[in-house]
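Example 3.2
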Amino acid sequence: MIGHGLMTYSLMVRSMTDWLWPDNGNHRRLETRFRSPVYPGDTIQVRIEVQDKRETRKGKWLVCGLTVTSQRDEIVSTGDALAEILN
């Protein structure tokens, strides 16, 4: 048995949301690639890295890279995200 890819996707979205909402931000786009299966009992960790930042009149746009790893340091998913933080 393996975890569905949308389970990993939902944790990626939740990580983005938990990070952005306190600063009046939202994620606008998330494209993912599922590289390895996630099995019952696995512990996964989501890392978000800001790769580029653009200032606008209304706030900031952030281009982010996401990496999800298992407890075995195996990359199970990667993603590209776009986030907006409003002034």
